[in-house]
Amino acid sequence: MGYILGQILGIVATVITVAMPLFRKKWQMLAATIAGNLLMALNFILIGQIGSAIFMYLVAILQAVVSMGHTVRNTKVTVTEQMLFLGLYVGLGLLGMVSAPGFVWAVTPENLLELLPILGSAMLTFSIFARSEQTTRKFLLINASLWAVYTAIVGSTTFFAEFFTAVTTGVSLYRYRETRS
Predict the structure, then answer these.
(1) Which DSSP helix (H) or strand (E) runs through 74?
(2) Position with higher pLDDT, 51 vs 123
(3) Which of 120, 146, 149, 6 is closest to 55 using CA atoms?
(4) Which sign does the torsion angle of CA 91, 167, 27, 77 carry?
């Protein structure tokens, strides 16, 4: 029952995530990021995929909340904040990787697979703290591509979220491009 509920939550997260890059305003994209990441973390917990991904989703929620505060106050994110979140992604991602069932201290396909969420989340750091919506979307495209590979391999329905996020982000990059005279 938990597995099925997890996959249903993954589908709901997919709908939210697919819509996210289509929002015009940054605060709307951030609100969708918070909701989508919460549901994705629950999806991974319920399908039994314990590893770096869960930590990445939780840090992404915190990062989006901080970024929303900057957006509302129209302040710039500090380099210290960016480095703190990058450190959280890498540190907690590696913690999640070594706590994954069957982890061994060696270069294995499973360990390399657990690096994809960490790299994707590093791209999320740059996307969330980017001042420009278009720059945000470019980093989201890289993020979604890395996560799509990961979620496809682990068998989560959130693969569709990542795949369609990549597609809608590409559409949004085109749709909101700067027109040149």
Answers:
(1) none
(2) 123
(3) 120
(4) positive
Residue count (the chain): 181
Q: What is the pLDDT of residues 96-111, one digit of tens each?
A: 777 666 666 666 777 7
Q: Are 21 and 162 in contact (CB under 8 A)?
A: no
Dist. CA 47–CA 171, nearest whole Å: 31
Residue with tokens 């549901």: 39
CB 54 within 8 A of CB 93: no
What is the predicted pLDDT for the residue at 31?
A: 92
DSSP 119: H
Taking only the tens place, the pLDDT of each residue in 19-74 is: 887 888 888 989 998 999 999 999 999 988 878 888 889 998 998 899 889 988 99
Q: How far apart are CA 154 and CA 168, in angstroms?
A: 23
